[in-house]
Task: structure prediction
Amino acid sequence: MKLREFLALLDSISPFELQEKWDNSGLQVGDPNKEVSRVYASIDLDSETIEWLEPGSVIVTHHPLIFGKLSSLSYDSYPAKLLVKLIQKDIAHIAMHTNFDKTHLNSYVAKKVLGVEPRCEEFVCLFEKEGSFDEIVAWVSQKLGLVCPRVVERKETIRTIALTTGSGGSLIGSFQADCFLSGDLKYHDAIKAKELGIGVIDIGHFESERYFAQALREQLKKHQIEAIIAPIKTPIKVWNETVH
Amino acid sequence: MKLREFLALLDSISPFELQEKWDNSGLQVGDPNKEVSRVYASIDLDSETIEWLEPGSVIVTHHPLIFGKLSSLSYDSYPAKLLVKLIQKDIAHIAMHTNFDKTHLNSYVAKKVLGVEPRCEEFVCLFEKEGSFDEIVAWVSQKLGLVCPRVVERKETIRTIALTTGSGGSLIGSFQADCFLSGDLKYHDAIKAKELGIGVIDIGHFESERYFAQALREQLKKHQIEAIIAPIKTPIKVWNETVH
Amino acid sequence: MKLREFLALLDSISPFELQEKWDNSGLQVGDPNKEVSRVYASIDLDSETIEWLEPGSVIVTHHPLIFGKLSSLSYDSYPAKLLVKLIQKDIAHIAMHTNFDKTHLNSYVAKKVLGVEPRCEEFVCLFEKEGSFDEIVAWVSQKLGLVCPRVVERKETIRTIALTTGSGGSLIGSFQADCFLSGDLKYHDAIKAKELGIGVIDIGHFESERYFAQALREQLKKHQIEAIIAPIKTPIKVWNETVH
Amino acid sequence: MKLREFLALLDSISPFELQEKWDNSGLQVGDPNKEVSRVYASIDLDSETIEWLEPGSVIVTHHPLIFGKLSSLSYDSYPAKLLVKLIQKDIAHIAMHTNFDKTHLNSYVAKKVLGVEPRCEEFVCLFEKEGSFDEIVAWVSQKLGLVCPRVVERKETIRTIALTTGSGGSLIGSFQADCFLSGDLKYHDAIKAKELGIGVIDIGHFESERYFAQALREQLKKHQIEAIIAPIKTPIKVWNETVH
Amino acid sequence: MKLREFLALLDSISPFELQEKWDNSGLQVGDPNKEVSRVYASIDLDSETIEWLEPGSVIVTHHPLIFGKLSSLSYDSYPAKLLVKLIQKDIAHIAMHTNFDKTHLNSYVAKKVLGVEPRCEEFVCLFEKEGSFDEIVAWVSQKLGLVCPRVVERKETIRTIALTTGSGGSLIGSFQADCFLSGDLKYHDAIKAKELGIGVIDIGHFESERYFAQALREQLKKHQIEAIIAPIKTPIKVWNETVH
Amino acid sequence: MKLREFLALLDSISPFELQEKWDNSGLQVGDPNKEVSRVYASIDLDSETIEWLEPGSVIVTHHPLIFGKLSSLSYDSYPAKLLVKLIQKDIAHIAMHTNFDKTHLNSYVAKKVLGVEPRCEEFVCLFEKEGSFDEIVAWVSQKLGLVCPRVVERKETIRTIALTTGSGGSLIGSFQADCFLSGDLKYHDAIKAKELGIGVIDIGHFESERYFAQALREQLKKHQIEAIIAPIKTPIKVWNETVH
Result:
């Protein structure tokens, strides 16, 4: 299969035209006329990941490396330095971002990772789960493997929960829920949530979207393609004095 | 002193025209012709803070409540519900945001809180401090009272440190430093920092800017005005299972 | 009925989504969860009107108080000073502007006030009425109670008349009529009308739209709601030397 | 003198580069290489004025005929029909609008017509004149020949007056004065003025700017050019029932 | 037939609403209420053409004279000087540009001039024609009467050819063809074509679109209107030293 | 010397900040920290040129490869395919476009190639040269080696000539000259020139700017850097039937 045909296959799984207009999902780097050999899947790409990949392969990630206007390929700037490495190792790179959020990722995380039955629309999945705030935090932390999650506490019992994998802070106020699970929690969004009476649990941008690799592999399997999940670690660590 | 004259005094301390064009520093709520009685200072305002303030007073905060277009004062939306409470208690509200960042806050935190001698320009203060990454994290955590800070680790020795109080992620790549101290660390900024070889310590948006109140009080004292520091807590807590 | 439900009722009478994109019809001030007691209707709000209203009530006006970007609630600026008074008296305020123009107001004025049978489309109602220009001015003045109306004279007989309540000058040239009835007549629009051979009678922005209150009351009656028409006077007076 | 040189002379009297960026002052119609014979001055141009002008002449007006984008010269549209008439009679047309407002017109009307000594800046002239509102209206009406002027009344004594010839409603709130003299008074500007405690007298767009012709003639005389004042009447009449 | 009715007839042949949004097809100059006498057709208008036309006639061209914003009718500027001549000779001018490209011109040139059977969509017609690049250039040059055409050579055999009359360089890369026929070939578009392996033959903007006159005449004949083809020459000559 | 230092040297020769805001002069591809070995200069880059260049070198061109937004590095698109080749051969690429036009290129071509003494400002050089149009075409063709140049003829004697290397058509009408020398002549610009009485000789975009390489080499020599002029041919050929 040529890269061009593989792109068409991905488009049939999650149409690229569903992406938001500020997004850049699709082919990032690569020769559409080259034969696709090995296929990798990963939430993202960094230098270590590229080091690890086999030359001549293709990697499908959630986030596109080219975001915003690219006017220079200076080797000491980001993301140019990674694009250069991909070209040097002859690795193709495709991104499936907001289109895949809408068609698969949110509901995958809700169903397969949290084990709930959600009602999903655009970027938000809603589901019922009753408990104290502490109970919900404990449950989510265990399900997603969170360490010292940052939270906006809510005293009253939680009944309805909203989930947006990745970075969903700007959505606060646009849905009805007692608690919001999303990543990249910012201070001003936390104030807003608190004033609107909505609890928040920062489930991590990486921690909530790393399931992209599994979700995509599951889809590709239906087309007899065995995607390899590329190893990647979040650049963010929670610093715990006692450990050091 | 009338509110109008108090505004002029603040302008002489940190000219409002220095604010960024997307900012909204200045009078948020209040009657310019009313006599100013009690003056409060705080990084921000929330419902509890307003509850605590005395009617008829004025509060100067770092962040403006009105940000972006305000097209409705619906009592169940944010920030309208806080603006309504201020009006009901007849409390005036003034913000000194990016103008004060440039003239006072960054260098205040560097000098008075971290105890270093920085070179400051616009939103970034640079200073020298040698140590391993772990030593720097320990030192910063102790100085700013951080709990489980999120970090992007850097193996090599730190020599030059950059500081931007508040939310400085978009500045990564625009300065030369081994380690960056700022708040609201986002996942994609963390990837960029890691790829550029810059360590990051998330010092918290709230935790790094709460010194606004002290910095402003210090300035007002020179004009024989005794500002009261309003109590406020960050809405974000680090959830620690063992505690619960 | 809660304010939220009253808004939904108004939306069923004249959908807010019909408003022009530069408009700001909808909730201006108020708590959606509060019980609606007394309902007022008026073309507009000024200090005297607010003085007159009962605390805790809701007033529906034609023009929204919040127009354009509101970046400060300074008590000495307009419209902030009126918004502040509404909040202090706990009065809710809703605007039904260009949506109501399209669904009700233009045709109401044509039918109920002028007593004609118009063909209405968007912001213009057309109807037949034959007479000399002087006869038409006399007829309109009597119907609408105009004093010394400003006119652009047309020598030939009038047969077709166009009506746009409020301020319709920018529409001149976009319809076929011998005479145009609208308010806020500007000098350059008058030149244009004269050169295109269209007579104009300035029927007043206030004078032609004050019927908003009656038109809305008529609609609310069908839903068993008795709206009280709030007293308001135009700020514009025609100065007549002999009177003084 | 060629038209090109006459334009340069006008530019030396009131530099065209002082015009506002939305303005279109300068050559509207004409051959820069043609000899200028007769020179006319007028606030504006209409069909009757063009009829009256001598072929081959040049007319300088306050308002430009070409305003906004001109994409068609259809003889039945405005202002194309007037441009066509100018070309057919070989008459050149130059506009001196916001540049002349700033350099001459406002202060000319204040000094020569109202007989006061103003302080002028950009589009506003301020001067002192004490009296009751009625006295001020009577005085202005007599000076400018106003019939039934529309006013926003102010109860307290007038001391400081602001003047903007033409259409100055958008400036309300940007200056400190008890009473504002300007033309084209719109209903919403009237509400704003009333709420801010500023009286307004609508002195007419035409009535306040027709002095353009005299003011320009005065300047041209210094350069030995005798401008003829073209006759023009306002298209707006105040309809007085008793007269008809 | 009045000019207004003639416009409606042209609209029925090729709807003006099909034009691109940056285009200005439609009435350029003329009185919609005047009787149409003689009708001319031409790709364009220049001074000599206008000289040649009979007063009181109407000319339909491919390119509109008014393109972009017209803010002055200075007789020494282009296109104002031509608009002035049209008005002085009382000649109406209508343009049928991108609407006619889409409905008639491209396919007319392909079928009637090149004698092929194309598949046309928007601005591009595709057809099959096998031959070496030199054979194709010779064939096109003979069909269109080209002298020393500028070309981007392609070594391999041509099979599929794309045609865009006028100036189609920006379309390179948006269609699949071995060779592109279009006018106004620019250097950077030539580089792009060469790198993408597409041959280009510059068939001239004028040389490829002068058939507008015939194509329109053919359509008008169906409505019993005999259009006269106005004589016009391209301003561009190929300079051949030996001739001089 | 590192690439970073070479960039600084080029900036001292022709400051990059002088470039137009739509331009993208500066580093296109390359590692700022790598040692610069061989330096090439050329008007442009194509596949053959890159083939010819030595790995690890740097090439300075007039036109930047990255123009407009680059959102994908698909190997079958232009200019991505050339950027990919540069990276694969580890060749750095720097562009000096509109900054170099202003500081060197225009005047270089006028003085060193045409042998005249021009007055240059921004993108236009003016000089005196008397002769018939044919004489001027012959002289220019000989100096620049033009074959069958396309021209807009002018009958009267030429005295003042304007020169803009590259593509200067949009400048027609902004300067006073009898004849204009520039490349990429478009049909509509030719009509405009003819109507304004300006002769035009299309001196070729490539043919007039290929001197970039010499002009830059001359400057670099002053800094003891020997630039090699890379071979490149224009993609545009004039097709002459007799030759084939």
